[in-house]
């Protein structure tokens, strides 16, 4: 299905999803990279060595969820924008998801952003908790959204310019 639509199947997603026990420990990186291509910036960026691309550079990245602390450095280094940070410990009802974002205008903290699933379908309006700008050499920004916990593994983008004033 991925090769025809560009959208991973539920089975694909399960292969890269941490256990609920791991989610209960705090933020964790999820690499939704499913194509075997020569790429390893995420592995090179991880100071904890939680991401491996082995046995050769054409393999898909694998996150060692027991080592990953969800710092998010890998998120901004992925040229395919395929790494996300999910923190289901953010609150009793919400998860904090960190999304790579390379469009303008950027949302502002306190605004609501229109969250999209992997197919680009609207999932609702969610508070922008933080916007982390990219660096001078890497312009990828990080958008932090508070979403209901049941949508933590569904919301994967926001509609560019689709912002409203907060709650």
From TrEMBL:
The keyword Transcription is annotated on this UniProt entry: no
Swiss-Prot/TrEMBL keywords: Iron, Iron-sulfur, Metal-binding
Signal peptide extent: none
Database matches in PROSITE patterns: 4FE4S_FER_1 (PS00198), 4FE4S_FER_2 (PS51379)
Disulfide bond found in the keyword field: no
Domain 4Fe-4S ferredoxin-type: 59-88
SUPFAM superfamilies hit by this protein: 4Fe-4S ferredoxins
InterPro entries for the chain: 4Fe4S_Fe-S-bd, 4Fe4S_Fe_S_CS
GO molecular function: iron-sulfur cluster binding; metal ion binding
Protein name: 4Fe-4S binding protein
Lineage: Bacteria, Bacillati, Bacillota, Clostridia, Lachnospirales
């Amino acid at each position: 299905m991925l090769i025809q639509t560009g959208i991973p199947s539920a089975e694909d997603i399960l292969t890269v999803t941490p256990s609920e026990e791991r989610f209960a420990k705090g933020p964790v990186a999820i690499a939704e990279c499913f194509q075997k291509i020569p790429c390893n910036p995420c592995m090179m960026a991880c100071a904890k060595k939680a991401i491996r691309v082995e046995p050769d550079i054409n393999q898909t990245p694998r996150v060692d969820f027991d080592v990953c602390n969800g710092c998010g450095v890998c998120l901004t280094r992925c040229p395919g924008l395929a790494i996300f940070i999910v923190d289901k410990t953010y609150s009793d009802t919400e998860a904090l998801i960190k999304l790579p974002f390379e469009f303008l205008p950027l949302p502002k903290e306190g605004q609501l952003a229109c969250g999209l699933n992997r197919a680009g379908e609207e999932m609702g309006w969610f508070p922008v908790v933080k916007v982390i700008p990219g660096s001078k050499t890497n312009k990828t920004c990080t958008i932090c959204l508070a979403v209901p916990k049941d949508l933590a593994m569904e919301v994967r983008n926001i509609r560019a310019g689709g912002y409203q004033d907060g709650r």
